[in-house]
Amino acid sequence: MFLMEVEASFEAGHRLPEYNGPCKRMHGHSYVVWATWGLALLNSQGIAIDLVVLKNILRSVVQPLDHQSLNQVMAGHTTAECIARLIWNKLQTQNFGSHLQIVAVQETRGTKVIFTGE
Q1: What percentage of the chain exceeds 70 in pLDDT?
Q2: Cβ–Cβ under 8 Å, residues 80 and 29
Q3: Average pLDDT over residues 80-105
């Protein structure tokens, strides 16, 4: 199995109104998102899935979140977990969606949420 991973980033603000702590107030993050697809076979050029294509797919999914208030553009909670699930669901509808393995979201350096769709 070949795993292909690409990265994209976006800037956004949000608040966690039910959280007991500073994140209850409006604040922002420089989010980093990784998406990983898996495929066992290579094409005639020796490529499983073109990384440029995958990077463009991921960028098209995260771009609408860039410089937004996530509380206004997302339904429900705006935690890193919910952002990862939202991105997963959107990637599933794109080319190669059935080969998606992992979506990871970092909202703060040193922490990451990993979603595997299960």
Answers
A1: 100
A2: no
A3: 96
The reported pTM is 0.95
Euclidean distance between CA atoms 71 and 49, whole angstroms: 34
What values do phi and psi take at 56, rounded to 5?
-65, -40
| Residue 1: both structure tokens together | 């199995």
Nearest to 103 by CA among 84, 89, 86, 81: 84
Domains assigned to the chain: 2-115 (3.30.479.10)
* CB 63, CB 38: distance < 8 Å: no
Closest residue by Cα to residue 101 from 49, 52, 59, 29: 49
Cβ atoms 11, 64 nearer than 8 A = no
The 3-state DSSP class for residue 77 equals coil
Does 118 score more than 90 pLDDT?
no
pLDDT digits (tens, 9 = 90+) for 22-56: 999 999 999 999 999 999 999 999 999 999 999 99
27-39 and 68-69 strand pairing: unpaired
Strand partners, 2: 39
